[in-house]
Structure formats: structure tokens, C-alpha cells
Amino acid sequence: MNVYRCLCLAAFAAVLPCGALRAADMPSAMPAPTAAPAASAAEAAFLARIMRELPERYPTPQRAIAAGYVRFTNEDDTGAISYVNVRAWDTTDPDVPAQVWYDVKGRLIGADYSVRVADAPNGPALFSIDPKRFGRGGAHIHYVTCTGMASSPSSMCTYGKAVGAKRYATVGDIDHPTAEGLVKLGVVKDAAEVKTVFLFPAIYDVSIWVVKNPLGQFAEHNPDVVPSASAGKENM
Q1: What are the residue ranges spanned by the domains of the chain?
Q2: Strands (E) located in 43-85
Q3: For the purposes of burial, counting CB atoms within 10 Å of the CB of 189, is it exposed (0-12), middle (13-18) or buried (19 or more)?
Q4: Distance of alpha carbon 154 from alpha carbon 148, whole angstroms
Q5: Which of 2, 31, 136, 201 lies at 20 to 30 Å from 121 by C-alpha?
Q6: At residue 9, does pLDDT exceed 50?
């Protein structure tokens, strides 16, 4: 999940920085996707490793979930559905990204690596990646709601919801957000409908395609990944 779209959603959803910016919220005339600056030798070695190893480690969303990842977005305008591991905001292991993304067919297509802003006073420094490739995003609270009981396998869930951290702080601890806090805030009616709620902290983040991209692995879009007709819709 590209951090810029992530921040845009939080900006819109919290009035307000991660989820996908809905197509309806985007300008009607979009510029053609551009290529990313070429990878350095050190970046190329890192890319080769994760493009080989991440698809083996997380071949399906179910494998990612078993490894501690949780889905929190809809399919965005690049065709990516994002899953987060909240224990990996400060990424230390190339094999454990902060986020992994899948297409609607369940194919792993990308990952995000990040470091908390509070833990990087001199800016991001991860795996020899050029610091200029990182975006910076502010803290916010993400949550997923489901119709009926959130634990029911037949429930319909809504992803990509967020509120600003400062707003949530008026009702609870932003480091430990709860369904009850969302009820107090008035953004959900019943705590039982909340499937997932977590702090998305202020981070430096870099998004990387792990499937081949003719525009480069650090490019925002991948012309070889075609979003489905459901991209940008709330309920999936």
C-alpha cells in the first residue's frame, strides 16, 4: 500500500493520514504513471531478495494472516489490498514487512517497509534504500467494521476506515485504541461490529512491488497489475 494514498484516505476519513483514495475523490484527468528512479546496486540486491523470498513466505492472504497480518484496506487504485503487521512498524527484518499487499485473486504483489518517525530523528535508514524514496505520514486510528457480529464468517466487512489520532485522543489512549472508544467517538454504533482497530503511527514508509514492474519496483503504479471493477468500493 502506497503511503501517499494511505495518508490521503486518513486525511479524508478523519477530516483530517491509510487506505485507498477512492476513485471518486481523485481528479478526472490523471497523469500517466511515471517510472521510479533506477535502483542502486545495494537497492537492487535488496529487491532481488524480497522478490524471491516474500512470495514464498506469504504466497496467500491466509499465510499472511497466520503470520500476524490483518487486512485493513479495500482494493486501491493500483489493485492492491493491504494487510498490516502492527508489530513491524519499525521494520528490522526484510522477511517481515510492515505491510503486504495482494490483488483480488490473492496474489502477493507488494510490501511496505517503515520506521516510526519518533524512532528516526535523522530520517529513515532501512536496508540501504535511498531515504528520498520514503514518504512520511501522520498518526491515525484504523478500524474495520462488519455487519452483524464481526466474528461471524458470513458478515460483510467495510475496510479503509480511519479517524485522526488527535480526535481519538479525546476519548481514549491512541496507543491502545478500542472498539468502545470508537463508540464513544460516535463513528460506530456497536462495539461488536468492530473487527479490527489499531494505531497507524507516524512513520516513514516505502512501498515496493514484489512482482515485476516495468516502471521499476519503487514506482507508485504497475501497468502489469490491473485493478478489478471493484477497486475503490467500500464493501468487499
Answers
A1: 3-23+34-138+202-209
A2: 70-71, 81-84
A3: exposed
A4: 9
A5: 2
A6: no
